[in-house]
Amino acid sequence: MRAARILQYHKPLVLEDIAVPDIEPNEVLVKVAACGMCRSDVLLVDGFFQNYGDIPPPVIPGHEITGTIEKIGGVVSKSAGLEEGDHVVVAPGWGDGVCRHCQVGNTHICANVRWPGFGSYGGFAEYIPVPARYVIKVAEHLKFEELAPLTDAGLTPYRGIKKIRDAGGLGPDRVIGVFGIGGLGAYAVQYAKLLGAGATVVAFARNPDKLAIAKSYGADHIIDIKGRSTGDIGEELKKATGQDKLDAIIDCAGAREMMQLGFALLAISGHYADVGFIADRIDIPLFPRVSGEQTFHGSFWGNNADLAEVMALAAAGKIQHTIKTIGFDEINEYLDLQRDNKVVGRAVVKF
């Protein structure tokens, strides 16, 4: 099979032919139809995750995976309802199944978790072995290139906004800011409208093309923050919404300056959910967080239930996409473009 592999960190992926993997009895072999390209793929190539755990090469990146079932392992139960040829998406976060997080369904935060695309096999290849419990059947009328990014770009902000909603941070008298309108932020705007219980949605970004996408996807207001002071941005926010603070923020970038801006704009008892980590450190004043009784939510990817809900929204036609399909041979080119923040929407490798 064709595979794009990390043989050395900080180097371009090597595009080569390798053997199709065998599967364990409890696994299925997925023939990859499409795989989204994520900022995390760039961070992986650039060695970022080596700060948190050893991922020895060779590594096949790519974790936004969809395709068809090619083969089913011998002990996969019939009750799983899987058949060869089924259209599926691959759920992230393959847990050990026995820890307290796995027991309540949050396999993606298991201490012993395995991630597709962060080891020997990932979506930048024509086949991947997957434990049968981590594939979800999807409606066959959905396009593979649109399904792929929903497994991360479309899943991650969904869980983050659910956290804000469930904590009481959304409602008809609230204003939620979406920070960073990249691959995740374009979906976050839509979820903020779908789940926001009538909250006003404001998109913040530096790129006018991305802000235009946010507006077309339902943002009530858009604010260009490039080169502007916090005070100026707050004034524009007040003109647009009647208040200069945000009751909730979903941050899809996690950049240092953007987080400083976000916390400066966060209202008393506000909720801040971060799903991005372009930066690896934040530096913000502590007292306003304490005195304003603000809540910070870390939110990472999503579980099987979250992904099933996103798939249901997609099947009902309630999610829009900004997709650029690319070929296998273009992977390194688009990793460079992703690194330079020049991809609008989501680049998706289509096989």
Describe this structure in words.
Strands 3, 4, 5, 6, 7, 14 and 15 form a 7-stranded mixed sheet that branches. This protein has a 6-stranded parallel sheet with strand order 10-9-8-11-12-13, with helices on both faces. The chain has a two-stranded antiparallel sheet with strand order 1-2. 28% of the residues lie in helices and 23% in strands. The model has no long low-confidence stretch (mean pLDDT 96). The protein has 351 residues and is of the alpha/beta class. The protein is built from 11 helices and 15 strands. It is globular and about 60 Å long. Helix 1 (39-45) crosses helix 11 (331-339) and helix 4 runs parallel beside helix 5. The protein has helices spanning 39-45, 100-103, 144-150, 156-166, 185-195, 208-216, 230-241, 256-265, 287-291, 304-315, 331-339, and strands at 2-5, 14-17, 27-36, 64-72, 87-90, 127-131, 135-137, 175-179, 200-205, 221-224, 246-251, 266-274, 295-298, 323-326, 346-350. Strand 9, helix 6 (208-216) and strand 10 (221-224) form a beta-alpha-beta unit.
